[in-house]
Amino acid sequence: DFRAAGYSAEWMTADEARNRAEISRVPEGTTHVACFGGEGYLLPDEHILTLVDALRRRGARFVEEMVEHIEHGDGSVAVTTAGGAVHRAERIVLAAGRWTKKIAAAAGFDLPMITAVETGSPLVGVLGNVRTQAARPERVVHSPRLNLRPSNHGRVVVQALDLNAGVDPLDLEGSGDEIRGEFQRRFHEVTGEMPQEEDIDVLLGLRSLPLDGFPVVGFMDTERSVYAAVTHGGITLGPLLGRLSADELLDRSRDPLLESFGPERFTESYREDLHAFTAPTQIGQQ
User: Fold this and answer.
1) Banded pLDDT at 89 (limits 50, 70, 90)
2) Dihedral (Cα; 41, 62, 103, 93), 10-degree rounding
3) Which end of the chain is least crowded, N or C, by CB within 10 Å?
């Protein structure tokens, strides 16, 4: 029970949900709605810009180049980029989302991740960006057929997990109209507003997925010079993982919360016993 664990959770009636979430409808037959009052949402683009600005003000330097090779050992790391530049450091962190496997390979490590970009791959996820002024919920809303969250500039981000399996990531345009129409119908079901199809942008996302679906956080080498931090739940877990990883990187102790998520768990027997990870297809399974 969430409340027994001290988590903010309550049941409310359908009428209360309409008022609290500022949407005009809830699915027919709904009698009660779960509300998690302490939860919020993040605008990822603005958040990233804020973090980048904070890093620059603290002296960080950004280099945008492809990594070709990573040499490590004896307490130091040398990163060679495609342009021939060599960047040296005591430690590096591999935190490049779904590209982390490729960068780890440049350092001689096999970081097990799902990489197939194809129809039916658990990497594939689509979102809708709906331009609206009338039906803009003030919080994250989960309904049986559609998730919604507020965005900026009068937009609402929508998601329907069951649509992902039919998307060809190499030809989003080919299925875009069908997805857009489905988002349009479901948005109307939940909010009562029927947006124009041209007011719905369909966006393709490719998840960052370690082979077993769980985060990989920890040193890849015994010299403690190459550190991995890769997870599907980066927006949700980022603040916690950032703090715990910083402690470990600064030679403080490894937090017990991370013990199950180190790269060393991927032994040969563990890999053999793994079943293929499948992405959630129903709302509420995330």
Assistant:
1) very high
2) -70
3) N
